[in-house]
Design goal:
Elements lengths: L1 H37 L4 H6 L13 H8 L3 H32 L5 H9 L10 H10 L6 H26 L2 H9 L4 H12 L1 H16 L3 H6 L11 H8 L9 H33 L4
Helix pairs in contact: 3-13, 4-7, 4-10, 4-12, 7-10, 7-13, 8-9, 10-13, 12-13
Length: 288
């Protein structure tokens, strides 16, 4: 009797959960669909018929061409790809070595060092932006890709070390011991044995680093706001400037096209690699 009651109760909850989940899907997917359809409209249709589908015989593909050329999205896209790629590579390289040392070796002050690194997760970047600005200025790294890359790498290190440290602790130490017995040094054992086994964790950190770096606006705006910074600006900065072209007239069709160009790489990366996110975080959280 209790089992029957439980089954009936569960059968009533399941449709409710499905309704909630499908409602959430609509809330997430519809804005992206509306954004894509709006990018194919003229400025007049955007204001007069904001929720109508664009006419099939009047699709404004030229909005994307205008965003790429007049809005200089080609240059901004190159800068974003370069900055993001270098940030991901340096973050994974440095964080993996630091996390491996903290996970595999016992040394005095090691735990305090880990807590010190993780403290970076608790401090909002906005609080450090003023001293960071003057530090970059004293180093001559304002309005440069190199300065922005270094700031991004430093900002992503705490999270990367946190995830990879937990992940390296889940790997069997017998593999490391076998490599050492075979004559491999510590660096070779790390590079050829342990690091390949940490691929799910590396992919997870790489995805989050990509998402955070590709969409970042505030730090880039502060560090790339001087004269000549237009040539090194990233996509979010280009999108902020794209709304004011042609003698300061707002071109909304071009602005929505720019949003689509900014969103598509993130969407593709997430769809292709999303299964690694939960897998990597789950495995890395087994030990802390």
């Amino acid at each position: 009797m209790p089992r029957t009651t439980t089954m009936k109760h569960g059968s009533r909850i399941t449709p409710l959960i499905q309704v909630i989940l499908w409602s959430y899907v609509v809330l997430v997917v519809y804005p992206m669909f509306w954004l894509m359809t709006t990018s194919l409209k003229s400025d007049q249709d955007i204001f007069l018929k904001p929720f109508d589908l664009p006419a099939m015989n009047d699709l404004r593909w030229d909005n994307f061409a205008s965003a790429w050329t007049r809005g200089q999205f080609g240059n901004h896209f190159f800068n974003s790809v370069l900055v993001t790629a270098v940030t991901i590579v340096l973050t994974l390289l440095l964080a993996s070595m630091a996390a491996y040392a903290m996970a595999r070796f016992t040394f005095r002050g090691g735990r305090m060092l880990l807590f010190y690194v993780l403290a970076g997760l608790m401090i909002p970047g906005q609080l450090a932006i003023v001293p960071l600005f003057f530090q970059m200025k004293s180093l001559g790294l304002l309005d440069s890709r190199l300065g922005l890359m270094l700031v991004y790498v430093a900002g992503n290190m705490p999270f990367a070390i946190f995830v990879l440290t937990g992940f390296f602790k889940t790997l069997p130490s017998s593999l490391h011991e076998a490599a050492v017995i075979e004559g491999a040094g510590e660096f070779r054992a790390f590079w050829t044995v342990m690091l390949p086994l940490a691929r799910p964790g590396l992919i997870t950190v790489g995805i989050f680093t990509f998402l955070g770096t590709w969409n970042e606006y505030f730090t880039a705006f502060i560090l790339l706001s001087g004269k000549g910074s237009q040539r090194v600006g990233t996509l979010p900065l280009g999108l902020a400037n794209i709304t004011i072209v042609s003698q300061y007239r707002v071109s909304w069709g071009m602005a929505f096209a720019g949003l689509v160009l900014l969103m598509l790489p993130v969407l593709v990366v997430y769809v292709v690699l999303q299964r690694h996110i939960s897998k990597g975080i789950t495995l890395g959280a087994l030990k802390g």
